[in-house]
TrEMBL record:
Native species: Cercospora berteroae
SMART domains with a match to the protein in the record: CoA_binding (SM00881)
Coiled coil: none
Name of the protein in question: CoA-binding domain-containing protein
Domain CoA-binding: 15-112
Span list, region Disordered: 185-209
Length: 239
């Protein structure tokens, strides 16, 4: 099946139109990305739900949060987006459960998927699945909440999507706290879920984007060496 161009920026913006955000892989361990990503939501006034079937609660920043075991246990799935920080085999099952539950949107962290899981997400959430190296991310490992989240929150305000009501009350428009803006914008931030991250671009990345990244890499290398092979590669890219 031929892949179509994906507007990942719009998908990321739609992700943040949700009223709630379930974090699959949320953990009490500060060294784990499930902990870091769950903690990222808290100061941004986002309703975060830890999803972890292995423990009844997690502790983040000195506070305990009750967990849910699966997407099917989320109380308001149609108004809930899902951050995924799990190994690819777990992600595959998780996405199936999320689809059956009616989850609004999904964001696959680097390291949480292979092409198979990303394709499934894009097919089942055609305008609300985020992941991979499609144009728009400022991170070096692909679309990541820690790196791209704040910009996506800002972008969500311009979508012609009415914010869903929560318990009969409309949530106010979200503002990224001034002291948090850009705090995770470094391209050197690691965003993988602790699993092996493939350096091979996803086939969902536009060809133009792939060539640009390869060309930049070659130019960076050429700044340090006069390697003839690199010059030949560059000539082929420009040809």
């Amino acid at each position: 099946m031929a892949s179509k161009a994906i507007d990942m920026r719009k998908a990321a913006a739609k992700f943040f139109t949700a009223s709630h955000f379930a974090v699959a892989g949320a953990s009490s361990n500060p060294q784990k990305f499930g902990h870091r990503i769950f903690a990222w939501y808290l100061p941004r006034d986002l309703s975060a739900i830890p999803l972890n079937p292995m423990t009844p609660s997690i502790s983040v920043r000195g506070k305990d949060y009750d967990t849910v075991a699966s997407p099917s246990k989320v109380s308001d799935p149609k108004h809930t987006s899902l951050s995924v920080i799990t190994p690819p085999p777990v992600t595959a099952k998780l996405l199936q459960e999320a689809k059956e539950a009616g989850i609004l949107a999904v964001w696959l962290q680097p390291g949480s998927f292979t092409d198979k899981e990303l394709e499934y997400a894009i097919e089942n959430w055609p305008d609300a699945a985020v992941g991979g190296f499609a144009d728009g991310t400022v991170g070096g490992e692909g679309w990541c909440v820690l790196v791209d989240g704040d910009a996506s929150i800002e972008a969500s305000k311009s979508l012609n999507v009415e914010a869903p009501a929560s318990n009969g009350v409309n949530r106010p428009k979200r503002q990224v706290p001034r002291n948090l803006r850009g705090i995770h914008s470094s391209r050197t931030d690691r965003c993988s879920a602790g699993h092996r991250v493939s350096k091979r671009p996803s086939k969902h990345e536009p060809v133009v984007g792939r060539k640009a990244r390869v060309k930049k890499h070659v130019l960076d290398r050429m700044g340090k060496t006069e390697n003839i092979k690199l010059r030949q590669i560059l000539a082929n890219l420009e040809g």
